[in-house]
UniProtKB/TrEMBL annotation:
Pfam families, sorted: DUF4837
PROSITE patterns (UniProt xref): PROKAR_LIPOPROTEIN
InterPro entries named among the record's database cross-references: DUF4837
This protein's name: DUF4837 family protein
Length: 324
């Protein structure tokens, strides 16, 4: 208990001092995206506190064909929190101390790095603190990982001003140079990244007129998507084309993209008449001044392979959407 209190006090000191020390140099953070280091007592990790944490950080990602957790988790007790672990990109410190608190630190031991410290006066109050901040925990680590992915994959990208659809439509996303053009006809753009074994990641962007309140309220997202697939994304046999999987209801969330009302849709796509399917993620932005919906979408085709990190990369790209 004493060791935990000392460490948390040190971390708090680092967090409070970090913002005023812009010239401090850091070692490069290690660890893959969607990986999380949990620092807490073994007994607490194995008990009710750990159970509550696992409900949050090990919750399955929405919209994937097979269950995959939000994070791959490694847990170490305080006495094993060595210099090697301190350089981890995402760290969650949890323990019982003399106060209830939730602190977020950046670049404490390495860069880029996020450290969340959650404390409680006793087990019951610590669990309550975890529950109260459950959404914030995911948001902090996910936002940091999205930014890390963008820094990595967008070092080289296609100039949006040279993409015909973006010039004509007046919006754009930043597409890495590793993706290759499939179609760019002024009405929609389609880029593809080839994975091993014939698998791929696909990016689409297009717009459609707003014709009703249902369009604005996100009630026609699936119908719009299916119409686009039928017209533009043919399958490998006659009369086959991409649709939203009929047996799987997509999850739709209210979000904001580029300061505008939008809908995030996570679900499964399939090719009508052909046994092909996989997960997709789309953002439908309500562009009222131009009386249209802007749709940007990413999907993965990779049978038998975990797809969480592929979809995470697509999310990082789609969220670069800018509307002129």
């Amino acid at each position: 208990m004493k060791k935990l209190g000392i460490l948390l006090a040190i971390i708090t000191l680092f967090i409070s001092c970090d913002s005023g020390n812009q010239k401090k140099s850091y070692k490069e953070a290690n660890g893959r995206i969607n990986n999380l280091l949990v620092v807490m007592k073994n007994s607490e990790w194995a008990g009710d506190i750990g159970d509550e944490l696992r409900k949050i950080i090990a919750e399955p990602v929405v919209g994937l064909p097979q269950p995959e957790s939000q994070f791959e988790v490694t847990q170490v007790p305080m006495e094993n929190f060595s210099s090697m672990f301190k350089a981890t990109r995402s760290i969650l410190n949890v323990g019982i101390t003399g106060e209830n608190s939730f602190l977020v630190g950046s670049e404490v031991y390495a860069s880029p790095q996020k450290i969340i410290t959650i404390t409680g006066k006793n087990e019951e109050e610590l669990i309550a603190e975890i529950q109260k901040n459950s959404q914030r925990i995911i948001e902090v680590f996910k936002s940091a990982d999205l930014e890390t992915v963008r820094r990595s994959i967008l070092k080289k990208y296609w100039d949006p001003a040279q993409i015909e659809t973006f010039k004509k439509q007046g919006f754009s996303i930043t597409i890495p140079r590793t993706y290759r053009k499939v179609e760019d006809n002024g009405d929609f753009v389609w880029y593809r990244y080839h994975l091993n074994g014939g698998n791929s990641m696909e990016l689409f962007a297009y717009s459609v007129p707003i014709t009703s309140e249902d369009d604005e309220n996100g009630n026609n997202i699936v119908a719009i998507r299916n119409a686009f697939g039928k017209k533009n994304i043919p399958g490998q046999v006659d009369d086959s084309y991409m649709i939203t999987e009929e047996a799987y209801t997509p999850h739709i969330f209210d979000v904001e993209i580029d300061g505008k009302k939008a809908f995030e849709t996570r679900g499964k796509w399939e090719v009508k008449g052909v046994y092909m399917a996989g997960p997709f993620l789309s953002y439908t932005v309500v562009d009222k001044p131009n009386n249209r919906l802007i749709v940007v979408e990413g999907l993965t085709f990779a049978p038998g392979i975990n797809k969480r990190d592929y979809m995470f990369e697509l999310e990082a790209i789609l969220k670069t959407l800018k509307v002129n």
